[in-house]
Design a protein that fits this description.
Blueprint: H1 6-12, H2 22-26, H3 34-45, H4 65-76, H5 78-86, H6 104-128, H7 134-152, H8 155-168, H9 175-202, H10 206-216, H11 222-232, H12 234-246, H13 258-279, H14 285-309, H15 312-325, H16 329-349, E1 365-377, E2 381-386, E3 389-394, E4 405-416, H17 420-427, H18 429-455, H19 462-486, H20 498-505, E5 509-510
Antiparallel strand pairs: 1-4, 1-5, 2-3
Helix pairs in contact: 1-9, 3-4, 5-8, 6-7, 7-9, 7-10, 8-9, 9-10, 9-11, 9-13, 12-13, 13-14, 13-15, 14-15, 14-16, 15-16, 17-18, 18-19
């Protein structure tokens, strides 16, 4: 842990906080002098084992020579020594016996011991993927944070920090730094739980991630919790920004690859977004911002892809996935608008009758629609020219004509998309032959039933007569309707076409012009 000032403290607390503590690596108490530090570092570098009576010594293995040398360098810097002292046991400082249970030293060391044990237990469970003791781990973490709360809220805690700074006698250890450390310490401690939640979420261990989020949100003050959550997800947010910058960057020469870039971005962004949703407070603005950034980036790439390929089906799928990611009203509105456009383009380019094949212009079904804009009654007066004057003389009495109506209307021509195969199925010779057979039977059936059969000695009841007359026609009609479905084509009513439905809702009607208009 290398800390130059108290803001660094917020980002410096990592899972190896106690394993990498310089006093732990050298096996020394926080009272050790510079000479003792150098001697111990030298012994470790030549391979000599050192003993430590610290109760934390059993949690970690022995240091390497490189670690011991780095630890000595850290402790030569008074500012770094101050922060390594803060996160190690103080008991050895006390003269004249052990501290009482309510003493700040005893409370601090209890916090250090429980914190180190919680972190060691976390690392062991993560390495073995053991989730059976999750409840016990949460209890241990709760005890640890509870101890730290007691320490930080004690008035004599700041006194201890100030005394240690004075003993180190370094101009950088100012009153501002000491007071800032006390203020920022709660958020720094909670940020460590936040980082554990992020790591568990990235590992797919949802239960452990949720445990750390619960711990983060149940200790210290709300502003400490918020600041800790922000710090914990800083790396996740940076990775999302990097993803967005890189997305589609290799597709400038080939826009057709942008669909794959969209799918890749959505896949890679899924876990970071879930992590942000979990760790950050509910309703935190950054959550909506990052969700919308991903969704709008997909929209941007989808537009370029659609323009290059006219692949509306894939475009629609990408927009629907982006809409599931978006959170903000503005982003959702933009995605909805573009989804409507893509849906219409897909409808116009895909056969409406089979829903699969590309539509062909020469096979489409033309449909004319009209809409009455205005109806006005024509004047029933008689116009008379007299000299320089134009007079209107009303018709009276029985001399009258039916009222005339002027109609102003507009016309719209549509083409319902259809493929050549569906056209052949719906308008082909097989269906025409069936229609001709049905019509022919209407004429031939009665002659056969009432003329030829009796002459051949076949007499049938009236029910059979009716069956002989109508059942063949009904059978042909059913076959007429069944053949398209069997071939994958739906014989649809024009009024069911989505665009026609929309237009009818706006007052349009199918036909060339309004009735009665010449």
């Amino acid at each position: 842990m290398r800390v130059a000032n108290w803001p660094d403290l917020l980002s410096s607390l990592q899972p190896d906080l106690y394993r990498s503590n310089a006093y732990r690596l050298l096996g020394l108490s926080v009272e050790a002098t510079t000479r003792q530090i150098d001697q111990r570092s030298g012994l470790i570098k030549v391979g000599m084992a050192v003993d430590s009576d610290s109760p934390l010594s059993t949690l970690y293995g022995p240091p390497t020579p490189e670690e011991a040398e780095a630890a000595a360098k850290h402790l030569h810097d008074p500012v770094n020594q101050f922060f390594h002292w803060l996160f190690w046991l103080w008991t050895a400082e006390e003269k004249g016996g052990a501290a009482g249970p309510d003493d700040i030293v005893a409370l601090h060391d209890s916090a250090i011991l429980s914190h180190a044990k919680a972190l060691a237990s976390e690392e062991t469970a993560r390495a073995t993927k053991d989730k059976s003791a999750l409840g016990q781990e949460e209890a241990l973490w709760g005890e640890c944070l509870g101890c730290w709360e007691q320490v930080v809220f004690r008035e004599d805690f700041l006194t201890r920090l100030s005394e240690r700074a004075e003993s180190l006698d370094d101009p950088r250890l100012t009153k501002h730094l000491i007071e800032g450390t006390e203020i920022i310490l709660p958020a720094a401690l909670l940020a460590l739980n936040g980082r554990q939640a992020v790591r568990a979420s990235e590992d797919g261990d949802r239960a452990r991630a949720e445990m750390h989020v619960r711990l983060l949100r149940s200790h210290f003050q709300s502003w400490d919790q918020e600041r800790a959550a922000e710090e914990a997800v800083a790396r996740v947010r940076d990775s999302l920004h990097q993803m967005l910058e890189e997305a589609g960057s290799d597709c400038s020469d080939n826009p057709a690859k942008l669909a794959g870039a969209c799918a890749d971005l959505l896949s890679r962004a899924e876990k970071p977004l879930l992590t942000l949703d979990l760790v950050l407070p509910v309703g935190y603005p950054a959550i909506e911002m990052h969700h919308d950034e991903v969704a709008l980036k997909v929209l941007e790439m989808q537009i370029a892809y659609a323009k290059a390929t006219d692949d509306w089906r894939r475009s629609l799928d990408l927009l629907q996935q982006a809409a599931a990611v978006a959170r903000g009203d503005q982003a959702r509105s933009r995605l909805a608008e573009n989804t409507t456009i893509v849906q219409r383009n897909l409808e116009s380019s895909t056969c409406w009758y089979c829903g699969k094949a590309p539509a062909e212009e020469d096979s489409s079904v033309p449909v004319s629609l009209y809409r009455v804009v205005e109806r006005t009654s024509a004047s029933n007066d008689v116009n008379v020219r007299w000299g320089e004057f134009d007079l209107k003389i009303p018709r009276t009495g029985t001399w009258s004509t039916p009222a005339q109506v002027n109609v102003r209307w507009e016309k719209l021509d549509l083409r319902i998309p259809r493929c050549r195969r569906c056209k052949a199925v719906l308008e082909g010779p097989a269906r025409g032959i069936m229609v001709m057979c049905a019509i022919s039977w209407v004429g031939i059936g009665p002659i056969l039933v009432f003329h030829f059969l009796p002459r051949w000695g076949i007499h049938v009841s009236s029910a059979v007569d009716l069956a002989l007359l109508f059942v063949p026609c009904i059978a042909l009609g059913g076959l007429y309707s069944w053949i398209p479905g069997m071939l994958g084509t739906n014989d649809r009513n024009l009024t069911d076409y989505p665009r026609i439905k929309e237009l009818q809702a706006e007052g349009w009607q199918i036909g060339e012009k309004p009735p009665g208009v010449s």
